[in-house]
Amino acid sequence: xxxxxxxxxYSTGIIGDNNQTTNNFYDTIPNRTIVYDLCMxxxxxxxxxxxxxxxxxVSWTGKLERNNVxxxxxxxxxxxxxxxxxxxILVSQYDKRDKLxxxxxxxxxxxxxxxxxxxxxxxxxxxxxxxxxxxxxxQANYNPNEIILEDIERTIILIMFYAITKCQLLxx
Length: 172
Known about the structure:
Oligomer: single chain
Number of strands: 0
Mean pLDDT: 78
Largest sheet: none
Low-confidence stretches: 7-11, 22-26, 52-57
């Protein structure tokens, strides 16, 4: 009698006794197709966009501290190892970066305008922006057989991280 297992969507398949696995979830970047597809969905969404200059960068840790961000500081810190690779994908292969960032800036401004009393709670603001981006992607013909939800969530976090370093998400 033989044992077999089949797994897909980048899943780990284990069969047998006394097996152990480790998954360093944050050490890998979602593949270029996923990054590109999600950026296109957000950039081409019906979210309004303002003006933006993509050349500026910011000290993200200081910015998060000034905006009372605690939880996302740890999350973004987990993604630091793949940030440069992610930014390289955006710079070399994605020509709508400015449009993408303008739309994220608009989402951020909409969130704080509607909830002025929570503007000082950076984690709450980032949660709201994250949820809007996630809903935008999922409502845009998201197919779980093509892109797994975990890759969508990781890519959105990286896109938000990128927007923060470009000084377009959270108070400057």
